[in-house]
Specification:
The chain is α+β, with helices and mostly antiparallel strands and 389 residues long. It folds into three domains: 130 residues, no CATH class; 64 residues; 145 residues, Heat Shock Protein 90, CATH 3.30.565.10. The chain is built from eleven helices and seven strands. It has a five-stranded mixed beta sheet with strand order 2-4-5-7-6. This is histidine kinase. Its EC number is 2.7.13.3. It is an enzyme of class 2 (transferase).
Length: 389
């Protein structure tokens, strides 16, 4: 802070007070030498109004007190209170006091209004500064968002390229692997047809093993190829799940009757999705519920849906063999089997299909199961948007 500034303020205050005293003195002298006491004494209003500029919160009151005292002294000196105490001249000093203190009231009202305006102005200044800071922060955030958006678009472009390369690789690899496997399978069939009867028990066992392994490998490659194709050339539309489940139950009629299985579902909603993928999703879950059933107990499969406002939650519940909690995350991975192939056939692809399909539809899938009691598979799907939206 500049040390000369307080000195300048002090000098300014002294000058203002001296001017106020000079004006009050001039009015007092005029009041002593004039017969128009009210008119002259009312000029003290100039001092009161001038006191606005004086330092101190109560400067106007101090000035009004001094002016009132001078008015009283003037009235005594001129003899107004002695010569005619009941006349108009006797009331001159009272009227002057009323004028003086009325001016004090007006000054206080004006000062209060001015203080309020100053406070409002200060608040507006603070708000303006805060707003500028917020704008600066928003500008920085906007710039960061723009940079992140650019990076995200670049990453998405790279991801699309890599996905296309992966799809091509999977397709080419699957095709290239199937050719030698097909050759091995054909040669194995020829050997079995021509020389099977000439082989001993060990030779027959080896030939059967080669044929079985070739068939299993062919199925695995086809399953891998189908897994890679899920999500390509997708056609999203409204899918009536009630009608879809009816079709699945009719298609699995022979399997369901053989296992004496019952599928319960009612009033399933219409969702937005790919009909082929959704059919694969529900068919895999229902098929698994039938496959992994308990011996001697007819499978009971219940399909329900729940509206959660932002999405739909589905549950496929069964009374099968159940799954250990330690395997909950494992079962949705590709080629993961929890049971030996001799007991339950399959490739370990069904639930991997389900996970990929649900994620392609913007949802998630999870399981709640107890070993020996049954399993409940939960997943979410997007609601069907109204045409008005």
């Amino acid at each position: 802070m500049n040390p000369a500034k307080p000195s300048m303020v002090l000098i300014q205050d002294i000058v203002l007070i001296a001017l106020a005293a000079m004006i009050a003195g001039i009015v007092f002298i005029m009041d002593l030498n004039s017969e128009s006491t009210v008119a002259v004494a009312s000029m003290y209003a100039i001092v009161i109004l001038y006191s606005w500029l004086l330092p101190g919160k109560f400067a106007s009151i101090y000035a009004a007190g001094v002016c009132s005292f001078l008015t009283f002294i003037s009235a005594v000196q001129t003899g107004d209170l002695v010569t005619n105490p009941s006349g108009l001249h006797a009331m001159n000093w009272i009227i002057s006091l009323v004028v003086i203190w009325t001016c004090v009231t007006l000054v206080f009202i004006a000062k209060s209004s001015y203080s309020s305006l100053e406070e409002i102005n200060r608040q507006l200044t603070d708000s303006h500064a805060t707003l500028l800071e917020k704008i600066k922060e928003l500008d920085v955030q906007q710039q960061e968002l723009s940079e992140h958006k650019t990076k995200l678009e670049s990453l998405n472009a790279d991801l699309l390229v890599k996905n296309r390369e992966l799809e091509r690789f999977t397709s080419i690899a699957s095709h290239d692997l199937q050719e030698p496997l097909r050759t091995i399978g054909n040669m194995t069939q020829l050997l079995a047809k021509k020389y099977y009867g000439n082989l001993d028990g060990q030779g027959k066992k080896i030939l059967d093993y080669v044929a079985s392994a070739t068939t299993r490998m062919t199925v695995l490659i086809k399953g891998l190829l189908e897994f890679s194709r899920i999500g390509t050339k997708r056609n999203v539309q409204a899918v009536d799940l009630q009608e879809l489940l009816n079709t699945i139950v009719m298609d699995l009629d022979a399997t369901l009757k053989t296992a004496n299985a019952t599928v319960i579902f009612d009033a399933l909603p219409t969702v937005e999705g790919n009909p082929v993928e959704l059919r694969m999703l529900f068919q895999n879950l229902v098929g698994n519920a039938v496959k992994f059933r308990k011996i001697g107990i007819p499978p009971l499969i219940e399909v329900t849906a729940r509206d959660l406002k932002t999405h739909l939650e589905f549950c496929v519940k069964d009374n099968g063999i159940g799954i250990d909690a330690a395997d909950f995350n494992k079962i949705f991975l590709i080629f993961q089997r929890l049971n030996p192939v001799e007991k339950f056939e399959g490739l370990g692809l069904g639930l991997a299909y389900c996970r990929k399909i649900v994620e392609l539809h913007g949802g998630k899938i999870w399981i709640n199961s107890n070993k020996g009691v049954g399993s409940s598979f939960y997943f979410t799907l997007t609601k069907l948007h109204d045409s008005e939206d």
